[in-house]
Amino acid sequence: METIHQRVRTEFHYPVHFTRRAFDTGNMALREVIASGGNSRRTLFVVDEGVCTPKRNFLAQIEDYCRFHADVIESVAPPIVVPGGETVKNDGRYVDSVRSAIHARGICRHSFVVAAGGGATLDMAGYAAATSHRGVRLIRLPSTVLAQNDSGLGVKTSVNRFSKKNFLGTFTPPFAVINDFELLDSLLERDWRSGTAEAVKVALIKDQEFFRWIEANAVLVVERNSSAIEQLIYRCAQLHLQHIGGGDPFETGSSRPLDFGHWAAHKLEQLTNYRLRHGEAVGIGIALDVTYSHVMGMLSADAWQRILGVLLDLGLPLYVPELETSDLLKGLTEFREHLGGELTILLLEDVGKPVEVHKISADKMKESVAVLSQYAPVCSL
Amino acid sequence: METIHQRVRTEFHYPVHFTRRAFDTGNMALREVIASGGNSRRTLFVVDEGVCTPKRNFLAQIEDYCRFHADVIESVAPPIVVPGGETVKNDGRYVDSVRSAIHARGICRHSFVVAAGGGATLDMAGYAAATSHRGVRLIRLPSTVLAQNDSGLGVKTSVNRFSKKNFLGTFTPPFAVINDFELLDSLLERDWRSGTAEAVKVALIKDQEFFRWIEANAVLVVERNSSAIEQLIYRCAQLHLQHIGGGDPFETGSSRPLDFGHWAAHKLEQLTNYRLRHGEAVGIGIALDVTYSHVMGMLSADAWQRILGVLLDLGLPLYVPELETSDLLKGLTEFREHLGGELTILLLEDVGKPVEVHKISADKMKESVAVLSQYAPVCSL
Q: How many structural domains is chain A composed of?
């Protein structure tokens, strides 16, 4: 009997909105997103406690908003408030609490989970939503620079397991993303700065002009100039989304340009027991891989120094002592294993000119760490 | 700032092979499937204990096959043997054991989980694979009529949670399906027969001619004539795959033609504490919904009787006492909630002519149960 060759095509569409004060009753963004979904009003909120500052009174805002827009939105339960950061991805009880509420409160595949918070909260809530009823609609309100310009925009959900970051997860596009710039106001300095690393990353691999813009505006960004950070986030989001909308959104191949600098970043997060923020780890990962690119003779001294200079201007650390542990290089194997297929690492020939390599020299990488360690006195964590 | 409208497109391809004795060393199907995936040879086997009959010596066959084809396939661990049936979906430890092996044995996104067994085993192993590293490649070897003509072919993975069937799950296309007809030989009578219910279902909603073929060949099928069952499986698989390849593979809408008869089926499985096989429950669900179609004046007495006649010829039960419990109708709400959106139930106007309705009369449904109860003496479980 003849083999049947099955083809399955899917197409997803979702909007990424940019706004301020999404829960002011006059703000139509969330209302319109939910109304666009048909007749379902049922909504479960999952909120990162980091967003719930005394000044903002976020939970009351949500309640007011739902009351005002009750014809379109029905909050089915008090918001589930979770701790931000990796805790929420490490401890399985948080995923369970979201799934349990989806079950108990009758959230169906046409209803909504609205997750507001940093990348970790969005990843966890996204995983719970994606795996309940084979996919409940997820609306993300990212609350950090990192989540607004990178992790909150894409098609990934995840939690950690077996001490491996993102071991459990899915590729599941969100129903919508609402980037509320006001949420950034309560960020700690450190979280503000660390979020800029992904913008440097995407500029380095995709857009020389954007890199020059970051170079020119780094000081404004660090001083928390609203217009500068909003422009940085918007452009970074555009580039990130263009990439996802391009070739391989569910990453079936071995190439992962957006993971530039990430093999070391993931390992450093684990080796520092998450003392490093993800963005900080990415900054160090970028510093390491551009230094390696230079040590290997691919990247000019001038370009290399410009890149380290931008990272320094953005107040990002370039070094942690854990870089020198022998376990660092295990990050290459784990990275390959997580992504699958052949080891594929992006290096740079120039700003905006990435090159894929499939082999990394352990000796030259150690040499690169040694070079980077010279920055330890000025910029380490 | 302008909203970014993101589009994400994906396309998956997978073959469904039909063969006999897939683990004879001369059988190239599995070898070729794995070789088609590139350089990765690493393979983890998950096997339903129902397949491991003393006569077949399945685990030794797998071992021999991998040894013979060691240039292409590397079995990374002894096969994980799991109980068949709903146990494997109800008890979270089985999912965990597969994920744990994926973690410990270095199975990456380009490596393989090969699952051999009934629908429940394939659903569970599929869920574990789909959620590890955001998706490890899954090759299914369905071992029952039901899994070969229906559940083992599609894009769903799942386990049960909160006493809800398939509460946790994903839409994830397999890497390949290998239908090995020899695996059917060890089936119990009951499992053999119950698998035919999905063929009746797909014929009723899609293909009058196939329905006539089943009518004419029901006796041969029940007598376990190889050629008859193989033809039934092949045609049912074709129709099923055509449907999935059509409009809405990840079921974002409210319409679910393939779930004809399933609202009652899922509830009856639960109400009988899984005393009913899924196929048996589907048979009863079909009997109920065609009876309701007739009671509502949509379906002629002649067509209705023909349909019940085929189910009886296939040795399927038409009745269980649990049909008369008041909880049965809760199945409608749960069905709507699981699928999301508006309640959408398929009824029949004629063989091959389904109609969607969005309301079910509780009184008329009870009347339909009463009509069906007359068959209790001849065909119940």
A: 2
- Given an 8 Å threshold on Cβ–Cβ distance, is B15 in contact with A3? yes
- B117 and B147 housed in the same domain: yes
AA letter at A6: Q
* Domain residue limits at B291: 192-373
Could you tell me which of A155, A152, A151, A126 has the C-alpha nearest to residue A138? A126
Using a CB–CB cutoff of 8 Å, tell me whether A14 touches chain B.
yes
| pTM, two decimal places | 0.93
Q: Which of B3, B5, B6, B259 to mutate to test the interface with A (most CBs of A within 10 A)?
A: B6
CATH of the domain at A31: 3.40.50.1970
User: A111 at the B interface (CB within 8 A)?
Assistant: yes
Q: Give the pLDDT confidence score for residue B338 in this predicted structure.
A: 74
Q: Which of B186, B208, B238 is where one domain is finished?
A: B186
CB contact under 8 A, A6 and B18: no
The mean per-residue pLDDT over the stretch A349-375 comes to 95
Is A166 part of the contact surface with chain B (CB cutoff 8 Å)? Answer: yes
Whether B95 and B218 share a structural domain: no
Give pLDDT tens digits for A147-204: 999 999 999 999 999 988 899 999 999 999 999 999 999 999 999 999 999 999 999 9
Question: Which ipTM value was assigned to this complex?
Answer: 0.93
pLDDT at A225: 96
- For chain B, say whether A3 makes contact (Cβ under 8 Å): yes
Helix ranges (DSSP H) in A272-300: 278-295
Residues 6+ apart with CB under 8 A from B211: B200, B203, B204, B310, B351, B352
